[in-house]
Amino acid sequence: MKIKFGSVKETIVTREEFPLSKAKEILNKETISVLGYGVQGPGQSLNLKDNGFRVIVGQRKNSLSWKKALEDGWIEGKNLFSLEEASEKGTILMYLLSDAGQISFWPTLHKNLTKGKSLYFSHGFGLTFCEKTKIHPPKDIDVFLVAPKGSGTSLRRLFKQGKGINSSYAVYQDYSGKSLKKAISIGIGIGSGYLFETTFQKEVYSDLVGERGTLMGAIQGIFAAQYQILREKGHSPSESFNETVEELTQSLMPLVSENGMDWMYANCSTTAQRGALDWWRKFRDATLPVFKSLYQEVSSGNEAKRIIEVNSHPDYRLKLEKELASLRESELWEVGKTIRDLRPEENKCHNK
Asked: I need a surface site. Which of 17, 27, 92, 117 has the fewest CB within 10 A?
C-alpha cells in the first residue's frame, strides 16, 4: 500500500495485506539456507523455522556460533551443515555472515550460486561497495534484501511475544521475475512488523550513519559527556547514571516509542517541558556538522574502505576486546551494571 508521510508517499507492506499463508505458498518449494549464525542468523533462522518454512543453517564447524546453533536445537547433518554444504543445498542463500566474513567466503559461495538460485542480504554493504568487497553476483540469479531495523536478539524476542521489528526491503537483481515476492515473503517469515521499500545503497548509507549516530556512537558520546559533567560537579555515580541513562532507557524511550516525542513534551512537568523545548535546537545545531561529515564519509566510500582495512588486520579481535574492555570498565558502565542488577526482576530484559 502507499502511505503518505507529509508530502512523501512510501510503499509499505503489512502482515494484513501479505499474510504468512501467502508467504509460505510462494516459498513452499524453496530450501532457505541461512549462512552465518552470529548477529542476525539465529533470530531470522529460528523465526522462519517456527513459521513453517524449510530452513537449514550453515556455519563454520566447531566455532562458538556452531555450538550456539546446536544449543538452539539445530541438528548436524539434518538442518545444520558447514557453510560449504549449506551453500550447495539451499535454493535461497541468506548471506548473514559479517561484512568481513562475506568478503572472505565469497569465492566459495560464488561457485554455488548456480542458475536460478537466490541470494539474500540483510545489509547493503557487500554490493554497494562491491569494488572494495569484490562481491559481484552472477547475472542468472535473483538478488534481494530484507534488513530488520534492530538486532537479531530483539527480532527473536519480539517474535516470541507476537510482535515484530519493522524491516526494509530491496531488489538488486530480478532474474526470475519473482524477486520482490520472495523478498516480501522472507520479510514476513522472519516476523517483520511491516516492510518499507529502499535500495541496497540507501539501506547501507542509512544503516552506517545510524550505527555511528543516534543508535550507538552519538548516544554513547552524549551519555559520556553528561555523566562526566554531573560527576565533576559533585553528583553521585548513582544519581549521574540515573539522570543520564536509566530514566531515558527504562522510562522515557518506551513512552516516546508508543506515543511520540510531542506527546512526551506535552505530558511532562512544565519545567522539563520548557527546558527541552528551549535546548533541543542547540543540540541539533551542535551535532548537525558532525552528521554532515559522517554522511559524506559513508557516501564517499571512505568509511567502508576504513572498515574493511581495519577488520582485516589479524590482530583486530585482540584490539577490539581491549576497546570493549575500556568501555565496559569505565565508571559510567560499571555503575550501569550495578544499577541493572538492582532492578526488580520483572523489569530486567532477558536476551535469551
From this structure: 17
